[in-house]
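lol forgot to send this yesterday, sorry. struct tokens for the thing we talked abt
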């Protein structure tokens, strides 16, 4: 009789513990994992790489996002609640960002996601977000086919299709470059998407494309490509890939005692451009982007002071755009009175003349951002320096 009593008691205790665990871990039944703003915080998920080949974009982006959340919370939060950032490293890989996006939505119950800065990765995450009615706000994707995924997809970056024609006009009218070589990185989706945009703009101005060549991300020997470039008669090189390969190409240019400048997009905006290229990229590489620390607005100046004080380093385009993205989402939530993506996305789509630290931003009816000016940057004394500001007119 005593043994049986102990057995019954043990069974009852086990059942009580099991029910307690189910109640604590149940899919979305408690305050933290239920309504997007039901608990004490409103969660935002970070999408970006902090390791891997595109970490130069994700690391400053994460810092900008953290700074914005810190400031908003100090100001009283959103809808009376504190913002909480959830941070995971997607390593620049499609499979990783797919898993993280799904976890943010189903496990962490975020109210929105900030990132990724890369077009291809953003498309992977945006497809998942759209199907789950979750707002995703890219702070860097510039290629085609992003917002077209659906009405939960936004971005606040200068778009290639608006920037490139302005840059080509500057190349021809200001610099007088009439013969252009183009090098594309074939295993880089950003590069393969940007090259046709440059080609269309160059052909529209009847610029001679004297060489089209290719590389692959991860290669380190560009002797053959630079030899062909040297013999092509090109006035300038358009390279549509990322900063690592750009630096290595220019190292080979310098090695072959060849004088030519490299023009590219904001894929070149990474600190490793200067670290890897050293003197070979100094005032030889020029790229366009939507942010500069030179000649800042009042909003940008205040951001620069806070960022420098917090991190003891200079911010870049990605830190500024992640910062703005968090601020814009918070404003949309406050204005709509809800942290539910199905509600505040309607307010988000109405954004007009937002005075962000990365420039004035408005959304067109298709949710594409209109930003001006285009900043042309180069490397000078190991740091990014402003070459010119070019106004953009978008209808």
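and heres what i got for the seq, position by position
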């Amino acid at each position: 009789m005593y043994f049986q009593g102990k057995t019954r008691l043990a069974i009852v205790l086990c059942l009580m513990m099991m029910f307690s665990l189910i109640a604590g871990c149940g899919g979305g039944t408690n305050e933290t994992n239920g309504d997007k703003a039901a608990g004490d915080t409103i969660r935002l998920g970070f999408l970006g790489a902090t390791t891997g080949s595109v970490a130069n974009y994700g690391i400053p982006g994460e810092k900008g996002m953290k700074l914005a959340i810190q400031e908003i919370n100090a100001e009283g939060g959103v809808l009376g609640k504190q913002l909480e950032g959830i941070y995971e490293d997607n390593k620049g890989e499609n499979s990783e960002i797919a898993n993280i996006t799904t976890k943010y939505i189903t496990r962490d119950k975020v109210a929105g996601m900030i990132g990724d800065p890369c077009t291809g990765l953003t498309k992977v995450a945006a497809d998942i977000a759209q199907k789950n009615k979750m707002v995703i706000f890219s702070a860097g994707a510039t290629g085609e086919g992003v917002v077209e995924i659906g009405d939960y997809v936004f971005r606040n970056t200068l778009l290639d299709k608006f920037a490139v024609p302005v840059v080509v006009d500057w190349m021809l009218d200001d610099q007088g470059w009439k013969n252009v070589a183009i090098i594309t990185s074939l295993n880089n989706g950003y590069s393969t998407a940007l090259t046709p945009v440059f080609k269309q703009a160059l052909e529209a101005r009847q610029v001679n494309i004297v060489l089209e060549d290719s590389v692959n991300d991860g290669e380190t020997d560009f002797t053959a490509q630079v030899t062909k470039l040297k013999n092509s008669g090109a006035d300038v090189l358009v390279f549509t890939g990322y900063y690592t390969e750009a630096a290595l190409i220019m190292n080979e240019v310098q090695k072959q005692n060849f004088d030519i400048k490299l023009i590219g997009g904001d894929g070149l905006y990474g600190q490793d451009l200067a670290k890897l290229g050293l003197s070979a990229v100094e005032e030889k590489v020029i790229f366009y982007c939507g942010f500069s620390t030179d000649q800042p607005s009042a909003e940008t100046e205040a951001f620069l002071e806070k960022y420098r004080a917090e991190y003891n380093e200079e911010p870049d385009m990605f830190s500024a755009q992640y910062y703005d993205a968090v601020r814009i989402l918070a404003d949309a939530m406050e204005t709509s009175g809800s942290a539910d993506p199905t509600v505040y996305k309607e307010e988000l789509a109405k954004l007009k003349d937002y005075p962000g630290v990365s420039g004035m931003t408005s959304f067109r009816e298709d949710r594409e951002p209109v930003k001006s000016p285009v900043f042309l940057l180069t490397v000078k004394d190991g740091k990014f320096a402003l070459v010119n500001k070019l106004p953009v007119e978008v209808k």
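Confidence is low (pLDDT under 50) at residues 1-34. anyway ping me if u want another try
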